[in-house]
């Protein structure tokens, strides 16, 4: 009985992590809307404009608090996907290790994104220059760091496309989605050269495309992880329990 209970608990944990990821995705849009970041401040705003934006801090704090909770869903997705990648990558799971390392890094970056913006809203009486600096650093955490997110997407994409087993853990379309995600996120790295236009950190290339691309990617990975965990649970339930051999 003990041997049979271990995989059951394991699959329940995987299902819980996948569901946490889906819940996190649903929390991100209201978080951005409440904090008034859905249409973010322009990179070319003056210090006075930043001071006026952070002059109403309560809504920003509330939205960022929701975002901090939502980001935990990303950590849960990284955990469950990393565990499931071990099922099919092989004895030296280098892509799993790369995915886990970059996934941990992206979780920290997204957390710092919210933390720096919260620091700006925590003391709105600061000078406009200080608020602008905190906002810039916070925004850079999530969008200037595109290469880390792209590397993570390529790691899981390559692993999924390399799974040639008869019953793959993940569908092949997820691998292609991950490759496209990596390509769509990467151009945002040039935002540090622009204060206006599509490449600025409030523009189409550096903000809008990465925002919806990441949200869709997080949802797709959480959904596929949920299906994989449920399939593993069904397999475990159908497998007869093996009684321990007496010593």
Biggest sheet record: none
Low-confidence stretches: 1-6
Helix content: over 70%
Distance between the termini: 17 Å
How much is the radius of gyration in Å? 21 Å
Protein name: DUF4386 family protein
Keywords: Membrane, Transmembrane, Transmembrane helix
Organism: Sporichthya brevicatena
Task: Offer a few descriptive terms.
elongated, single chain, 247 residues, 8 helices, mainly alpha
Please provide a written account of the structure.
This is DUF4386 family protein. Keywords: Membrane, Transmembrane, Transmembrane helix. With about 250 residues, the protein is mostly helical. The protein has one domain. Helix content is about 75%, strand content about 0%. The chain has 8 helices and no strands. α3 runs antiparallel to α4 and α3 packs across α8. The radius of gyration is 21 Å and the shape is elongated. The N terminus is likely disordered.
Topology:
Elements: H1 2-34, H2 47-53, H3 57-85, H4 94-122, H5 128-143, H6 146-162, H7 172-185, H8 204-238
Helix pairs in contact: 1-3, 1-8, 2-5, 3-4, 3-8, 4-5, 4-6, 6-7, 7-8
What is shown here, in short?
This protein has 247 residues and is mostly helical.
